[in-house]
Amino acid sequence: MTIQQYKQQLYDACKEHSFFAQQALDRYDAATTDQERERARIDNTQHLAACHALQWALDKAIDFEQQLKQAKIDILNKAKERIKTAIDTYYNSDGGGYYLAEDALDDIDELIEEVAE
Q1: Number of H helices and number of E strands within the chain?
Q2: Distance from CA of residue 86 to its chain's centroid?
Q3: In 10 A of CB 97, how many CB atoms?
Q4: Which residues does 116 contact at the CB level (< 8 Å), separation at least 6?
């Protein structure tokens, strides 16, 4: 499941609980006995609580998605920086002006290991 699918499921579930909370509120207004009103009030409270919990989870998923995007950007920027350093180093040390792709791959592998830790 992707983050987008997860967020959509949270949103849909929250929307559903919101609908049920409104139905409970309508039942409360139409209730003729204290017992009916109490049951409708409890249902409303439960559905609203579920909706708030789902909204909190949705907010956390959005935060996580933003952190993940930033982490990817940071990794790419660091890889770019290391590749540029490698190009400058190889150009200056060899005098021939060429760049070894294998060394750039090693740099990227090191970045992946850093992120994995």
Answers
A1: 3, 0
A2: 34
A3: 9
A4: none
Q: What are 49-73's pLDDT values in tens digits?
A: 999 999 999 999 999 988 988 888 8
Residue at 6: amino acid letter: Y
- Residue-averaged pLDDT of the chain: 85
Query: Which token pair is 108?
Result: 């990227």
Which structure tokens are listed for 7?
Answer: 């967020």
Q: Average pLDDT for residues 21-29, to the nearest whole number?
A: 95
Q: CB of 8 within 8 A of CB of 63?
A: no
Q: Which two tokens stand for residue 47?
A: 């559905």
Give the whole-number percent of the chain exceeding pLDDT 70. 81
- Take residue 95 and report the two structure tokens written for it: 């005098």
Distance CA 91, CA 106 (A): 17
